Amino acid sequence: MDITPTDTALPPPSRGSVTRVGDRVFSGLARGSGIFLLVVMASIAVFLTIRATHAISQDHANFFTSFEWDANATPPVFGIGVLIYGTIVSSVIAMALAVPIAVGIALFISHYAPRRLATPLAYVVDLLAAIPSIIYGLWGAIYLVPHLKGLNLWLDEYLGWTGVFDKTDPEGAARSLFTVGILLAIMILPIITNVSREVFRQVPKMHEEAALALGATRWEVIRMSVLPFARSGIISASMLGLGRALGETMAVATVLSASPVLSAKLLDPVGGTFAQNIAAKFGEASPFGRDALIASGLVLFVITLLVNGAARLIIARRKEYSGANA
Predict the structure, then answer these.
(1) Which parts of the sequence belong to the ABC transmembrane type-1 domain (predicted)?
(2) In this structure, what CATH number is given to the domain that contains residue 254?
C-alpha cells in the first residue's frame, strides 16, 4: 500500500502582513514627535497672541504704523513701523550679499577645488557656522564698523544722489542698517554654503557625465545639470539663512543702537530690528511693557512663518522642473 506523505505545515506569512514591535514603536515615536512639535508651535502662538492682545488693546497709537515706543508712559504708546522696516531691510541686504557668494563657494568646493583644498576649506566653513553670535557682534563693533567708514564715504560721494546712500553725517561711525546687513550676510554665509554644498553633491553623476560627453564645458554642466537639480535645495538653504537673519539679536544690538526713527538712508545710525528691540528693552520694561515687546515678537513669529510658507510653495512649484524626481 503506497502512502504518500502530505505536507501539513502552514505556508509562511507574507512579509507585508508581519508587523514587528520595533516598527510599531518607531511609527508611534515618529507620529508622537510630529504631534508634539505641532502642540509646541500652537502653544507658543496662543501665548504670544494672548499677551499681545492685552497690550495692543491698551495702545494709544497705531501698532503697525506708529514710530514711537514708550510702553511705560501713561497712556502707553508703542508702534513697530520702524522695527518692521529695519528687520526687512537688513535681512534683504544680508540675503543679497550672502546668497550669490555662498552658492559660488559651494560650487567651488564641490566641483572646482581639488580634494586637498576642498576638504580643509569645507572644515573652515563649518567652523564659521559654529561661532557664537556675540563674537560676530564684537568683531563687527570693533573691526567692521571702523573699516567700513571708507566704503560709506565712497557710497555717499558717488551714490548719494540716489538718496539711499546719502549719509547725513559723513564723519560719523558706520553704525547703520547697511553695516548690520553686511554683518548678517557674514553670519548666514556658512549656513547657506553648507546646505548648498551638500545639495550639489547629490546631483546624479550620470547627468554631469552625459553633459560632458555631449561636449559641454564645466560651466555649461553646472548651468544645465547642477543648478536645475539643486534649485529647491538652494531655496531651502536661503530660507534657513533668512531665518537666522530675521531673528538675530546680539550681533545687531552690538553694532546698532535701537532708534525710533524711520529713514530711507541706509548709512544713517537709525532704525532697529524686532529681536534687537526686545533684547534691549525687556530687562527694564514694566509688566505691560513686556506685553508690548511680546506683541512685537508675535509679529516676528508671523513673518517667519510666512517666509517659510512662501519658501515651501516655491519649492513645491519648482520641484517638478528639477531633476529631483528623475
Answers:
(1) 84-311
(2) 1.10.3720.10
